[in-house]
Design brief:
Layout lengths: L6 E5 L12 E8 L2 E6 L3 E5 H7 L14 E4 L3 E11 L8 E2 L4 E4 L2 H6 L9 E11 L2 H7 L3 E5 L2 H6 L2 H11 L15
Parallel strand pairs: 5-9
Antiparallel strand pairs: 1-2, 1-10, 2-3, 3-9, 4-5, 6-8, 6-9, 7-8
Length: about 180
């Protein structure tokens, strides 16, 4: 089985689901049972400071991190937080995704985000995208997604508004070249 772990799914213009329209999704896990990913470019109106305050977690309100937007990571378990971050072990629920990237779901990482102990680079998302066995492969065959190897600079170093364009450009494609209709040879 070919795995799409540590790849981006780039939504094609024909994908009209409002949750995934013009999305870039990082695939965290993909196996014979299905796939799980985090949408990395759909910011919510809520900031990290808003979320920490809602969860009654002490934080430094002067830290600029508190103004970063929380992302809508996917429609599944939208009340559950996921932190994609540069590799930094030590969090209770950390899972190594590749040499450079981890995902964490534990509260201890939230408590460290505005401190010097927090990860250097991270993205906080609520919810995730999930596919049952064979579903993702079928969606790719139906031309709903382009697939490229993930690039952590797209996850962490770009504004959300530029991630979809940057991911397509990494393939050598400009977004205007993408068609909303699909064809099969």
């Amino acid at each position: 089985m070919n795995t799409f772990e540590h790849h981006f799914l780039i939504a094609m213009p024909s994908l009209q689901d409002p949750f995934f329209q013009r999305s870039v999704t990082y695939i965290c896990e993909h196996n014979e049972d299905g796939a799980m990913g985090i949408v990395i470019n759909h910011p919510l109106k809520a900031t990290i400071g808003d979320l920490l305050q809602q969860l009654d977690i002490e934080f430094d309100p002067k830290n600029p991190i508190t103004e970063q937007a929380v992302c809508a990571g996917g429609p599944v378990q939208a009340d559950r937080g996921f932190v994609l971050h540069k590799a930094q072990p030590g969090y209770m629920s950390s899972m190594q995704l590749d040499d450079d990237l981890m995902i964490t779901t534990s509260k201890d990482i939230l408590q460290s985000l505005t401190t010097s102990d927090g990860p250097d680079k991270f993205l906080l998302a609520l919810g995730y995208a999930g596919w049952v066995a064979g579903q993702l492969e079928q969606e790719i065959a139906d031309n709903s997604w382009l697939v490229i190897p993930a690039d952590s600079s797209i996850i962490f170093d770009l504004a959300h508004a530029y991630k979809w364009q940057a991911a397509t450009k990494k393939m050598g494609i400009e977004t205007w070249q993408l068609s909303s209709t699909a064809g099969h040879a």
